[in-house]
């Protein structure tokens, strides 16, 4: 191998490989999404064919209105419920996990190994369903939105604590010392000095966890059953039987609940990637 | 100079003194910060987990329970439907995490090489991770329809008679595993990309100088140095695979018959049927399976990592 080749070591772009990769990505990953969109705008009869055909007529608005009106505006109520659930539980997670992660990183005590063990077990152990329902019933929170919010917070805390603990380690301790010398107590030190510095990791946590909570199906299924307070994932499941002959409406529903994660992905692609890989490697 | 030498000395002096002073020693890192987290976590996670060990040994109606010993567990391993759920869980977890490791690594190598449309490809491979499992499940249920579905239609064009995917008992579980890999391979790819990008360029250049081809440098450099990423992918997808429920529930609900049931769907079915004790026993079994597989594996993989 000549020196020139070695220095100029970047090989040319491989056009054949690129073409194969792009074509197969379209077949495997893009076509299912195009199929969702096409079926969502078809009329009822054509959508029952289940095939990958161009719609005879575009019924975007009619299908949209019809799916919203189904079952007394259940989907609208579900979107409101899901928004409340996502906002409240992600806020709770961020505040609680930031506080815990901060102290866990800063204060070395003999309890730390035990606390770390608890955090990791929260990631690994599958939650015990019926006993959790039993506890919620004792507290009067079963089948209530506050109960489900607390559940989502409790199950999501471990992941958030790991991210916050890793990030707090990059904030210099001198900053804490300076704040203390200036007379800040523990609460002020945390909320006025540390918390604003956590901004970038907070964004990551908010984005990743809101997608998780919004997409969650199991916890609402167990802990908040019933049509009045269904979340969007449950409406899909409830509509499935009703819409078995109306695939256009079913796919319109799928399309609608895919839009919020899509928006998150378009705006916060890098944050999501950072959060998922760093959290993954630490966990 | 005097200050810099004095500071460490005063620190070493103050530590034993502070310990002697005990609780009066002031720290701004208050244990109170743990309180809300600890409260929520123990009430809604730790207490139910410990309670599950007791209630799995009972016949339970949420209001009163009769102790029946290990009957629930005996039933779990005698009823063919439940045993099937147990073995399916293991098969599903191993198949999905194995495929995610292989495909994730291949895709990551492809997506870090110099090809056109890298950004587009990365986005497209990753996006299904963010779509809800129920949406993906229902979409694929339609795509995998044996007579009219798109997949069998496409296979028919090239002369292959596609199987009944989700309706054929011998294919159902593997079809769901396929959907799970489709949805989850993006995360594995992402983790591998992070691993490959962090390999210093010099290693590859040194290998090139020594005359290594691309296969040799993949085999001797990329593969060993990606070991932390591999460990992460295996552990994460095993945990996810053993606990998976949403995709299975959205596509087949454990059917046809109970051929694609897993422990998590058995837990839900028994809960719906009102057998709370049996459902909780399923939970305990799932807990034991997850810890019995993940903890030793984690220990084993991380130990090997140190040897390198």
Automatic annotation (TrEMBL), chain A:
Any one of the GO BP annotations: transmembrane transport
The keyword Transport belongs to this UniProt entry's keyword annotation: yes
Keywords, ordered alphabetically: Cell membrane, Membrane, Transmembrane, Transmembrane helix, Transport
Annotated compartments: Cell membrane
SUPFAM superfamilies per UniProt: MetI-like
Membrane-spanning parts: 15-41, 73-102, 114-136, 148-168, 189-211, 247-268
GO cellular component term of the entry, any: plasma membrane
Broad class of where this protein is predominantly found: membrane
Coiled-coil regions listed: none
Gene3D superfamilies with a match to the protein in the record: MetI-like (1.10.3720.10)
The ABC transmembrane type-1 domain, residue ranges: 79-268
Keyword Iron: no
Membrane topology: Multi-pass membrane protein
Pfam families xrefs: BPD_transp_1
UniProt family annotation: Belongs to the binding-protein-dependent transport system permease family.
Protein name per its UniProtKB record: Carbohydrate ABC transporter permease
TrEMBL record, chain B:
Tagged with keyword RNA-binding: no
Residue ranges of the TM segments: 31-55, 90-112, 124-144, 171-200, 221-242, 275-301
GO cellular component terms, A-Z: plasma membrane
Membrane topology field: Multi-pass membrane protein
Alphabetical list of InterPro entries matching this protein: ABC_transporter_permease, MetI-like, MetI-like_sf
Main location as per UniProt: membrane
Domain of life: Bacteria
GO process annotations (BP): transmembrane transport
ABC transmembrane type-1 domain: residues covered: 86-297
Record key words, sorted: Cell membrane, Membrane, Transmembrane, Transmembrane helix, Transport
Pfam families, A to Z: BPD_transp_1 (PF00528)
Cell location: Cell membrane
Family statement drawn from the similarity comment of this UniProt entry: Belongs to the binding-protein-dependent transport system permease family.
Name of this chain's protein: Sugar ABC transporter permease
